[in-house]
Amino acid sequence: MNRIILIGNGFDLAHGMKTSYGNFIDDYWENAIEKIRAKPDWENGFENNEFYVQPLPVSWDGNNDYEGLKDNLNNINTNLNFTNEFFEILNRNKSSQNWVDIENDYYFLLKNCYKKPSRYTIAKLNEEFANIESLLEKYLTKVQQEFLKSFPITAEEMSFERSIYNVIYSDFNFRDFSESSINQLTEFEFQRVNNHIKDIEEENVSFSDFDLSERDLRLYKILVGIKDKRQKIKKLLTSETAPNYFRHRPQDVLFVSFNYTSTETHYHNPPTDSEFGNDISTDIIHIHGVLNNKTDNKVIFGFGDEIDKDYLEIENLNDNEYLQNIKSMKYLESDSYKRLLEFINSNNYQVFIFGHSCGISDRTLLNTLFEHKNCSSIKPYYRQKADGSDNYSEMIRNISRNFTDKASMRDKVVNKKYTDALFR
User: Fold this and answer.
1) What's the pLDDT score for residue 89?
2) Residue 89: how many CB atoms within 10 A of its CB?
3) Contacts from 396-401 at CB under 8 Å and sequence distance 24+?
4) N- or C-end of the chain: fewer Cβ atoms within 10 A?
5) Cis link prior to 152 (omega < 30° from 0)?
6) What is the pLDDT of residue 250?
């Protein structure tokens, strides 16, 4: 059995990287205001691709942020004039909701372009979106370079890294698995030991005639004389004492990163296991591309929910501008999606979710992963908040939106009792 480590932006944030859309916008205004304040007195205006201001304040009060800029402009009865309307909407939403989701906002505006036609066309939206995509890639490149120079340094960072590493390469816990997967594993274990145990029961051989590990010896002894061995094996597999009798670890670990950064490279070297005598195989897929790759795995930025009821209408518009930033179209520009399909078709697998909200902007791909017949378990590692609450329930609600088969969801998703708060 294999394991997929599904990585989202929360993974980077937990490592101290300021990679959220909110971080990006805050950094944008800090840099823009520094340029404005550095203007010589004889220059009474500022302009870039996103906005312009004229005249400029002669003095400055408050912080170097968006609200601070607006306050200072209000003091001289001057407006902040956006030339990128999409960026204006992002900032307006961030101010009113203290939250920004560039991809969801893009999709909302895309639907408005055909449902409520106006001067703001899909061509204009895509042009402005591309501008923001370019700015975001430059910002994330800077954040990643700073991170690679400085992590891990402190004892706390080293401890955090070690705890993540241990989870990634941990043995399977069979209580996590769907009922069909447990039954399949039960049958595998039954077939593996049954003939030997029958020989022992018939006194043809003794325990000492087999080269048994300590686990197998305990298992053989507990099964000898039991009528329904399958049922006993199943109970043992899902019990607290399962590690006393069984040990299964991942054959292959695939890091599926939805981030553009490469934080996962700190964890892709597996441990050597003396008991098994072979290393776990690892691979990394950046499903949304890699920063500054302009050839075979370019950054994919957009929306990915073909399950949305409006998507079929968008396809039927017969206007390719509307499909320019749909992720499933861009997946075909690299082999990442194909490699992922090959992996999930090759063997049963468990999914560990690290810092991914499982929101609808990636619903098409997540539905493929979660509802696949080889998906045996989905284990969401949640975030513990400072006030003692956590986001487990929120993650489950988001995960449910990626399922069309809700019974399958309840069977596969691991109960909160059996998962952990990995991030804070």
Assistant:
1) 95
2) 19
3) 398/357, 398/358, 398/359, 398/360, 399/353, 399/358, 399/366, 399/370, 401/358, 401/359, 401/360, 401/363
4) C
5) yes
6) 95
Question: Does an H or E element contain 377, and which?
Answer: strand 375-383
Six token digits for residue 25:
């916008």
Digit-coded pLDDT (tens) for 54-84: 999 888 888 889 999 999 999 999 999 999 9
Encoded tokens for 110: 């895309």
Question: Where do the domains of the chain lie?
Answer: 2-16+151-170+249-298+334-423, 21-145, 179-244
**For residue 309, what pLDDT is reported?**
86
Segment (H or E) for 282: strand 281-286
Cα(72)–Cα(4) distance, integer angstroms: 50
Q: How far is CA 207 from the centre of its chain?
A: 48
Residue 12 token pair: 């980077």
The DSSP symbol for 4 reads E
d(CA 259, CA 374): 24
DSSP H helices in 202-326: 214-223, 229-237, 311-315
Query: DSSP of 293-315, one letter per residue?
Result: --SSS----SB--TTSTTHHHHH
Q: How large is the C-alpha radius of gyration of the chain?
A: 27
Identify the three-state secondary structure at position 353. Answer: strand
Q: What are the beta bridge partners of residue 51?
A: 82
The candidate with the shortest Cα–Cα distance to 127, out of 114, 115, 109, 141, is 109
Token pair, residue 171, equals 């043995």
Spans in the chain with pLDDT lower than 50: none
On whether the CB atoms of residues 70 and 116 are closer than 8 A, the answer is no
**Running DSSP on this structure, what letter comes out for residue 270?**
P
**How far apart are alpha carbons 200 and 385 in whole angstroms?**
54
Residue 336 CA, distance from chain mean position: 15
Distance CA 169, CA 147 (A): 24
